[in-house]
Amino acid sequence: MSRTLIVITDGAHARFFLHEGPGMGLKPLSAEEMNADVPAGRDIMADRPGRSFSSVSEGRSAMEPKSDPRELVEKAFVSSVLERAEKLFAGQDAARIVIAADPGSLGEIRKALPHGLKDKLTATLDKDLTKIPVKDLPKHFEGVLAV
Fold first, then answer.
1. Strands 13-19, 34-35: parallel, antiparallel or unpaired by DSSP?
2. Which helix (H) or strand (E) covers residue 99, if one does?
3. Rounded to whole angstroms, what are the CA distances from 44 to 39, 72, 74, 115?
4. Beta pairing class for 4-9 and 13-19
5. CA dist 124 to 56, 66, 127, 136, Å?
6. Residue 136 gets which letter from DSSP?
């Protein structure tokens, strides 16, 4: 029997499932759900931006941040999801992994996927399924697994 770990995530939520073979459905690993506290961009950047002097005149202007703080929080969350997935993959004795994520998170996942999981990655779904009820999830994986 071939076991597949299924990771469903976006930038702030992650759910993990185990698929144990054709006709077996998806078994939620509910103790492994993850949620990040991703504040709205306006809350992260609540202070007024810093100011700098112009190099060509005597004027001053507001400085824009070099990176989006919300994006940094989401990247950190994706990294923690992959760490958890790696542990679950070994702990559940899985042979394959399938990942479903929103487009932005999926891009980050592809960049950060550890080699141990990259070799076992069977499929990726470019969909945000984090809010789909468990009973409705199998139909989204029919093209990938015999659920």
1. antiparallel
2. strand 96-101
3. 7, 11, 13, 33
4. antiparallel
5. 50, 31, 9, 18
6. G
Task: Report the alpha-carbon distance of residue 71 to residue 61 in Å, rounded.
Answer: 24
- Amino acid at the residue 15: R
In this prediction the pTM is 0.79
Give the per-residue pLDDT at 48.
60
| Buried b or exposed e, range 78-116, using 16+ CB within 10 angstroms | beebbebbbebbeebebebbbbbbbeebbebbeeebeee
Residue 52 token pair: 């700098």
- Looking at residue 126, its amino acid is D
Phi/psi region, residue 8 (left: phi>0; alpha: psi -120 to 50; beta: rest), is beta
pLDDT given at position 64: 61
Regions of the chain with pLDDT less than 50: none
Q: Are 98 and 4 in contact (CB under 8 A)?
A: yes
Cβ partners under 8 Å of residue 50, min gap 6: 62, 63
Letter for the amino acid at 18?
Answer: L
Per the CB < 8 A criterion, the answer to whether 8 and 19 are in contact is no
CATH 3.30.420.60 fits 4-36+67-141, yes or no: yes
